[in-house]
Design goal:
The complex is a heterodimer.
Chain A: E1 4-5, E2 11-17, E3 20-29, E4 32-38, H1 43-55, H2 57-63, E5 66-72, H3 78-93, E6 98-101, H4 105-113, E7 121-123, E8 127-128
Chain B: H1 5-22, H2 24-44, E1 48-53, E2 58-61, H3 63-68, H4 89-102, E3 104-113, E4 119-130, E5 136-145, H5 147-228, H6 230-240, H7 242-276, E6 283-285, H8 287-302, E7 306-312, E8 318-320, H9 322-342, E9 349-358, E10 361-368, H10 398-409, E11 413-418, E12 424-431, E13 440-441, H11 448-453
Parallel strand pairs in B: 7-9, 11-13
Antiparallel strand pairs in B: 1-2, 1-5, 3-4, 4-5, 6-8, 9-10, 10-12, 11-12
The chains are: A alpha/beta, B alpha+beta.
Chain lengths: ~130, ~450
């Protein structure tokens, strides 16, 4: 799903995935499209999430990058981590800067435990446009 | 005619009851055997099988479960909530919410913690058992150790991520090389232009100097003549406004002198720039002269957007690739000017260029009162292709090339931060004893906590 555009041209919108939802908005600092995920990031939600975010890569490129906001993600499975990893690979191939924002300590610990946190740029937050 | 199926089943049940009534020992043996099979299935399963009460307290667990959790005796597990053994209690709570809601959960990933503290990745499926009133009385579940599968997946993710990174670096390096090639070509072009300009400027200057002498001679001759024939010359002088002509010629000559000097300085700057595109010999370098050269080169970019202040301290000449350092200063100046211009103010901004000597290092700082660099992007400003400029305004290579020149070529350091003028500050330091093989990138962060929270990539 493409993010809708607000009257000022900034992206906004949401997309339901099985068990979780993605809400799009724009960040001014750093400049990027923000995909705020709410709900568990597991096998059920992974495929839909992957498709939704990749579909929005062109918008992310125009916005200066993609921030996946994880503050509302409580549970993440290996499928979820795999999805984040695949998204990062795809983003790097398409020269899009991908950052993870505000993961809970639980999610951050799982990224660390699975040995992939070092590949991600993790930021504490972002400033709305 | 066959009786209906239900009647058939009914008669089967009756026959079974009859067997129970009349053959109790046989039935008891069959029940025992069945129970034994179930016990064996429970006990010998390679996956953990457990039963908890409604509060998730373990009532029963098989041997594989005790081993999976790293204990020696099942009674170390029985009587404790299963969440005690989860690496993260929240994950178990999430599981219980789901199972109470749906009555069952399939393939739920959970990380358990073994007795020795090590994590074990598990895949769990479970169902609830309810009483006649619909109350949950127990949870029956199976947990499978999937650590090996996860380890395999992890290796795959890492390999893919490393490959993507390597691919990205390769692209960056290629583009950087291309850019450096382009700079080298530009340098050659600049050298050619400088050479072509130099020749005509040479004879123009020479002719101009001769003309100055001739005009001076003519003026002296006219003065002599005016002294000898005052009456005759006055009318001529008035008719041709000779006083004005002579004074204006003097003024024009002075202005032409300044123009020639500027051309000479520009040609010299072009020659310096020409050197920056290619590897050059290390030679004594005057940092303050470099600042002057860069200011001259950037003048057109700066003059409409900012006023430049310079505070150039005593810095001894030191060994460096001068043209390359000039290019760094030029990059910093142009960046500052473009940052100020992006604010579209109706007044000139400020750029301050300072140099000084500090702890055996020549320091140069370029500050501006532009919008500054947002803290979140500070860690990336020296990355190739990173730019905050509007599309088409910057390649994102200027600071990356500057970093390469200062850090890799000269063993110095370069940093970005907030300036006292309110905008950005770029500062580099170069060892006055000459280039050394190592260097370090320093970036200033006002919020150390933020820096600590940033996950830097480990290569």
């Amino acid at each position: 799903m493409n993010p809708d555009l607000k009257p000022d041209g900034s992206p906004s919108g949401s997309s339901p995935c099985s068990g979780c939802s993605v809400e799009f908005s724009a960040s001014r600092t750093p400049p990027a499209l923000v995909a705020k995920i709410s709900g568990p990031l597991d096998q059920a939600s992974s495929v839909c999430l992957m498709e939704t975010l990749i579909h929005n890569f062109p918008e992310a490129r125009k916005s200066g990058g993609l921030i996946i906001d994880l503050r509302n993600v409580g549970y993440v499975s290996s499928s979820g981590i795999g999805t984040l990893s695949r998204l990062l690979v795809e983003a790097e191939l398409q020269a899009i800067t991908l950052r993870l924002a505000a993961p809970s300590p639980r999610v951050a610990a799982i990224l660390e435990l699975l040995g992939v946190s070092g590949f991600f740029t993790i930021i504490p937050g972002w400033e709305a446009a | 005619m066959n009786p209906p199926a239900s009647k058939k089943r009914g008669s089967g049940v009756r026959r079974g009851l009859a067997r129970l009534r009349y053959r109790p020992l046989e039935t008891e043996r069959a029940l025992r055997a069945s129970e034994e099979r179930l016990r064996s299935f429970f006990e010998e399963s390679k996956d953990m099988i457990y039963i908890t009460n409604a509060e998730d307290v373990v009532a029963s667990i098989n041997r594989a479960g005790v081993e999976l959790l790293g204990y020696g005796d099942r009674f170390e597990v029985i009587g404790r909530p299963l969440s005690d053994f989860a690496l993260n209690e929240e994950d178990r709570r999430h599981f219980l919410e789901r199972i109470r809601e749906a009555g069952f959960v399939m393939d739920y990933e959970i990380i358990m913690r073994r007795a020795d503290g090590n994590p074990v990745f598990c895949l769990e499926s479970a169902r609830v058992v309810k009483d006649r009133e619909g109350r949950v009385t127990e949870i029956q579940g199976i947990m499978k150790d999937i650590s090996e599968r996860i380890a395999g997946e992890r290796e795959l993710w890492k390999a893919n991520l490393e490959l993507a990174e390597a691919n990205m670096r390769l692209k960056e390096t290629q583009a950087l090389m291309f850019q450096q090639e382009k700079l080298a070509s530009l340098g050659q072009l600049a050298a050619g232009i400088a050479h072509e300009i130099n020749n005509p400027v040479g004879f123009l200057k020479s002719n101009h100097a001769s003309l100055k002498v001739y005009v001076s001679e003519l003026r002296a001759a006219w003065t002599d003549l005016a002294r000898a024939l005052p009456e005759a010359t006055r009318a001529v002088a008035e008719r041709h406004d000779l006083d004005y002509l002579f004074s204006d010629v003097e003024k024009l000559t002075r202005e032409s002198d300044e123009g020639f000097s500027r051309i000479v300085r520009i040609v010299s700057a072009l020659k310096d720039f020409a050197r920056s595109g290619r590897s050059e010999a290390v030679a004594p370098y005057d940092l303050n002269q470099g600042v002057e050269t860069a200011l001259l080169m950037a003048n057109n970019e700066i003059k409409y957007v900012a006023a430049v202040e310079t505070r150039l301290g005593e810095v001894p000449a030191f060994p460096a690739e001068g043209g390359a350092i000039d290019q760094v200063i030029l990059n910093l100046l142009v960046n500052a000017a473009q940052a100020i211009a992006s604010l579209r103010r109706d007044r000139l901004g400020r750029i301050m260029v300072e140099t000084w000597l500090e702890d055996g290092k020549a320091v140069c700082r370029v500050s501006d009162d532009g919008p500054g660099i947002p803290e979140p992007v500070l860690p990336r400003v020296f990355d190739p292709f990173f730019t905050t400029k509007e599309p088409g305004s910057g390649t994102g290579l200027g600071l990356s090339i500057s970093y390469d020149i200062i850090v890799h070529k000269h063993g110095g350091s370069i940093s970005a931060g907030k300036s006292a003028l309110g905008g950005a500050e770029l500062r580099f330091e170069l060892p006055v004893q000459g280039p050394s093989p190592s260097g370090e990138r320093h970036q200033e962060f006002k919020d150390e906590g933020f820096l600590a929270r940033i996950n830097t990539r480990v290569s």
